[in-house]
Write a structure and sequence with these properties.
The complex is a heterodimer of chains A (177) and B (110).
Chain A (H helix, E strand, L loop, with lengths): L2 H12 L6 H20 L2 H17 L10 H19 L25 H13 L3 H12 L4 H8 L3 H20 L1
Helix pairs in contact in A: 2-3, 2-4, 2-6, 3-4, 4-7, 5-8, 6-7, 6-8, 7-8
Chain B lengths: L2 H9 L10 H14 L8 H24 L5 H10 L2 H25 L1
Chain lengths: 177, 110
């Protein structure tokens, strides 16, 4: 489904055809659940959040101005919802102490499994302050696209780059402690 | 840990798929939303006369007080205390505070 098709479906929904919203859900359910999962690390809660985001999108569909892509509007709306819900009930995070301690990548410890390292990195991202966590999660979710990340977060590209830089720095510090 | 490794781990993460019932659950919620009765609108038609009267009274008070010269606030303090103005102000502030808090909580939820 292209941007034009998104626009067409939204117009159908606004004209009273609620079942057309199903096409929006079909198209965006995967990305929205995945984005929620990257924040929660809990598949059940990710689906709850994504469902709530779709419902909010349905309620406020009229506020999409069509000057930006529908996906941009949808992700920004979802992110606002995830932000407030995660502030209300923070996700359970894995303590870094529970995961194998890491050293600098140039001198990797033998025996530390790759999956452990990956889990450690993700746990460390969860433990970052919200603004750095959001920047990193959304940046990698959007396949490292700074411009789209900036639009989704509603901040300038320069700020995204600064937060990514600082976020990586904090990650490195946490993971080499 | 180098940036390349962070990029590899976070950039290489696979997307997860929604469960089989997710689409149906969302559409059911949408349908419920669509068929729910609309929220009761604020009764602006009934409220406007009261707002207008309050505004007129305020303007009248300002005009009167400016015509009578600079206000003597010290003389107003005993009068205000005799009618319980501090308690009224406290109650109004508490009402406003609870209103703002409930709106904020409702905004976060919806």
């Amino acid at each position: 489904m292209s941007h034009d098709e998104d626009r067409e479906v939204v117009r159908e929904v606004l004209a009273g055809d609620d079942s057309a919203f199903g096409r929006i859900v079909t198209r965006w359910q995967g990305p929205l659940v995945s984005l929620a999962y990257r924040f929660t690390r809990d598949p059940g809660r990710a689906e709850d959040l994504a469902q709530e985001a779709f419902l909010r999108a349905y309620r406020t569909l009229r506020s999409w101005r069509e000057d930006s892509a529908f996906s941009t509007w949808l992700f920004a709306l979802a992110l606002n919802l995830f932000r407030s819900e995660l502030r209300r009930i923070p996700p359970r995070t894995v303590s870094l102490e529970d995961v194998a301690e890491l050293r600098d990548g140039r001198s990797e410890i033998p025996g530390v499994e790759q999956s452990d390292r990956d889990r450690a990195v993700r746990a460390a991202v969860q433990a970052l302050p919200a603004k750095y966590r959001e920047a990193l999660v959304v940046f990698y979710f959007h396949r490292s696209d700074v411009a789209v990340t900036a639009t989704t977060l509603g901040i300038p590209e320069g700020t995204v780059k600064a937060r990514l830089h600082r976020g990586r720095e904090l990650l490195r510090r946490k993971l080499t402690r | 840990m180098r940036d390349e490794e962070i990029d590899r781990v976070l950039g290489g993460e696979e997307d997860i798929l929604p469960s089989s019932g997710f689409h149906a659950a969302v559409m059911e919620a949408v349908h419920r939303e669509a068929t729910a009765p609309p929220p009761i609108p604020f009764p602006w038609k009934r409220a406007w006369p009261a707002f207008a009267a309050a505004a007129l009274a305020l303007v009248g008070l300002l005009v009167n007080s400016s015509a009578a010269g600079p206000p003597d606030f010290d003389s107003l303090i005993p009068v205000a205390q005799s009618v319980g103005a501090p308690w009224i102000a406290l109650a109004a502030a508490a009402t406003l505070g609870s209103l703002l808090l409930s709106r904020r909580l409702a905004d976060e939820r919806y």
